[in-house]
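Hi, does anyone understand the following?
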Amino acid sequence: GELDPKAVFELFKRASFRPEVLGAAADSLRYKFDLAAEDVPRRFAQEVEEQIESGNAELLRIVHSLTPLQSAVLRVLAARRKAFAPFEAQTMATYQEVLAKLDGDGGKLCGSLDDIQFQLDGLTRLTIVHRKRSEHGGFQRHAVSVAPVGERMVTLIGRFLVREHRRQGRTTGARAGHA
């Protein structure tokens, strides 16, 4: 059977526009010579879903490995996106608010710019965020943005937090979009 381009595009969107997910799904079916032609579209969709779930599980593993301060920085970045200014006083205060919600007992103060720099470096090594340098009027500027894998992670963090809060029977504003 032939794959419907519209159905494939929908799978591509579900896969966060990552061609490697569709490629891996196609590769998994490449040598299935016993697969009936009419079953190809259904099996391809199943394989894409399995690839998505596998990738999501890996992202959640990374999320669970974040330190509380890394998690706070990521949540604030996710909430503010282009307006994110990592070292402004208001942002530093927001890190503290999110950290207090995460920790439950007020959290450790994160008043040091070096602390935040260290956390951003860690998130960069995990490929969750990108750091860009640019020259503007003779001055170097540094910008931080969510990397493509980080975009997926931000969505997953939101889903995970909602599920965790429901499981614990409470709701807070600590979701990624409400930091």
User: Anything to note?
Assistant: The chain has a mean pLDDT of 77. The helical segments are 5-14, 19-29, 40-65, 68-80, 89-103, 113-125, 148-168. Residues 1 and 38 are 5 Å apart (CA to CA).
